[in-house]
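Handoff note, outgoing to incoming analyst
You'll be picking up this chain. Sequence as last confirmed:
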Amino acid sequence: MVDLTEQEKAAMRAAMRRVAETMAEIGWGTRFQELSEAQVLTLIEVAVGGFQEAMQAIARQDAKAEVPF
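Most recent structure output, in case you need it:
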């Protein structure tokens, strides 16, 4: 297991919200094995995209922070 940074954990939580929205569209009662290939690819795309966007937002936020000296 990889030791995640706090920023990575926050980005995963942000991505999880997007995955949950997609699962709500698909239907929470749908078992993983019942998903079509397109649905699985959409879930992966949403998860990766959400993570990347959150990490970029965090990096922009960190870049705007004042230097403490």
